[in-house]
Specification:
The chain folds into two domains: about 150 residues, no CATH class; about 170 residues, Rossmann fold. Strand 8, helix 10 and strand 9 form a beta-alpha-beta unit. The strands form two sheets. It has a six-stranded parallel sheet with strand order 7-6-5-8-9-10, sandwiched between helices. The protein is of the alpha/beta class. It contains 13 helices and ten strands. The protein is elongated, with a radius of gyration of 23 Å.
């Protein structure tokens, strides 16, 4: 009896494996998580990432009181690698799904989620931690630009660096500091040195949150000009844009993914064509030549975050969803204004 029990569990996993794209390892890990949840006996289970929730539901977790928060990678790269039907069982369950943008909501619907099971809850920031800080004088040169993000293709640092170097070549006084680390670090450093602007463009590596906030206070504006990778990976919201606006910094970004839902083009920042170096240069030149716009855009950005992107608003939305789950009202119709 004791010897046959593990065999029966393995057989169960293998049978389930034939029905889904989840691996035996993922299903086994989900089963261990379910046992832990049974010991807690929670009234609501809030799971981050569809790639975590999917194996749980496939392994037998009841989704009646399941809330799944998606973050992007699980909705683009995983379906690209493992098939668009990987979440079929999860989407057929009564789980409620939260997405940080309309862009991500639409992507989940394309993968098979019922639109009325999706609730839009943008990721918010703590306005006390990211407060408006006085920066360098508006008319000071060089114009100081900060970029924060993993050094990966999706973040588009190469295009930002090329744009900055082109402007430095013709004498526009600029300074770019990039916080972050990743697989493209060496390649980007080689690009900076090849362009001959190592004294004006610096890779600062990965830094703690306190250092990031400190760098925010030293810059005139924030820039991160991302693109959509061939895998489909793209910014579904971009919390760092919210953080920059909360500190009163204008944003230069790409009109890609869900970025336009957090950066208001022409009001809190300028959205560029993805991968278009000339478009990025035009945006940077605008702020260099119109220094008063730095303060105007920055104030609008702070107000934008206060009105719709604070952490308190995010937590209130999740609290409302928890109460909905507790009352066994499986219908997020009360939140439809967030869906479309």
């Amino acid at each position: 009896m004791i010897a046959s029990q593990p065999r029966s569990i393995v057989q169960k996993f293998r049978m389930e494996r034939r029905k889904t794209s989840w691996t035996l390892f993922e299903l086994a890990a989900a089963t261990r998580t379910m046992k832990y949840l049974e010991s807690l006996n929670p009234q609501v289970v809030h799971c981050h990432f569809g790639a975590v929730a999917g194996p749980l539901v496939s392994a037998g977790l009841s989704a009646e009181n399941l809330l799944v928060t998606w973050h992007g990678y699980d909705s683009d790269v995983i379906p690209h690698k493992r098939g668009t039907g990987i979440y079929q069982k999860l989407f057929a369950s009564p789980a409620t799904h939260t997405a940080n943008s309309r862009f991500l909501s639409n992507r989940l619907a394309q993968l098979g989620a019922d639109r009325y099971s999706i609730v839009r809850v943008p990721m918010g920031v703590d306005l006390d931690r990211f407060s408006i800080r006085s920066g360098p004088p508006l008319d000071a040169n060089p114009l100081r630009i900060l970029s924060v993000g993993r050094l990966a293709e999706m973040k588009g640092h190469r295009f930002l660096i090329e744009a900055i170097c082109d402007l430095l070549d013709i004498g526009v006084p600029l300074r770019l500091d990039i916080v972050g680390d990743g697989p493209l670090a060496a390649e980007l450093e080689c690009l900076i040195q090849a362009r001959g602007h190592g004294d004006s463009v610096a890779l600062l590596g990965s830094q703690p949150h306190d250092r990031v906030r400190s760098e925010m206070s030293k810059c005139h504006l924030f820039a991160l000009t991302g693109v959509c990778e061939p895998t489909g990976q793209v910014e579904t919201q971009g919390v760092v844009f919210v953080e920059a606006q909360a500190t009163g910094r204008p944003v230069v970004a790409s009109n890609v993914g869900g970025v336009k839902e957090v950066v208001e083009d022409g009001r809190t920042g300028i959205l560029c064509e993805p991968g278009n170096i000339d478009s990025i240069k035009n945006a940077l030149c605008y702020f260099h030549e119109n220094r008063a716009a730095l303060e105007r855009f920055g104030s609008s950005g702070r107000k934008h975050v206060e009105e719709s992107l604070s952490i308190n608003q995010m937590l209130e939305s999740f609290d409302a969803l928890y109460m909905d789950r507790l009352r066994h009202r499986h219908s997020p119709n009360n939140y439809r204004k967030h869906v479309l």
